[in-house]
């Protein structure tokens, strides 16, 4: 028997505000990711069924770090101790410490998403990233908030598809 995961709710089809549309779809994908990983056993969250070796828990942590890097560290210019926390070494596979639990990563994800929402709410779509994590000199082009939000959307959309497959292979659960 196939277990169905309840779908996340898409933003209304009548939206005309680019900001509402982008942030609405980000929340849609954040919810979809959470629905995919909730209910998986710890073994399945940490297990990889793919040659690349990534695990659903590693991907979940990666998405939290992506939000942290793009919005807190890059766009807002905040000091972040470990902006690449999902890697032991870069480049390399996503990593979750053995002592990190699903609840730890979930809390990190939810807190990071809440911080992202606050940053976006306080800015305009045409605002440029403050520093992009210190990598971009002040006189060089820096991405706008609208570009960053669109980039985050494509990152989420791609990885939700990955989690679709991982979840179905893990326990047969399918759905949005």
Radius of gyration: 17 Å
Amount of helix = 40-55%
Order of helices and strands: EHHHHHE
Number of self-contained structural domains? 1
Task: Describe the structure in your own words.
It is a single chain. The protein is mainly alpha-helical and 176 residues long. It has one domain: dinb family like domain (Four Helix Bundle (Hemerythrin (Met), subunit A)), CATH 1.20.120.450. The chain has helices spanning 18-37, 42-46, 56-75, 102-121, 145-171; strands at 4-5, 174-175.
Summarize the structure.
This protein has 176 residues and is an all-alpha fold. It has helices spanning 18-37, 42-46, 56-75, 102-121, 145-171; strands spanning 4-5, 174-175.
Primary descriptors:
single chain, 176 residues, mainly alpha, Four Helix Bundle (Hemerythrin (Met), subunit A), two-stranded parallel sheet, 2% strand
Question: Secondary-structure map with pairings?
Answer:
Blueprint: E1 4-5, H1 18-37, H2 42-46, H3 56-75, H4 102-121, H5 145-171, E2 174-175
Parallel strand pairs: 1-2
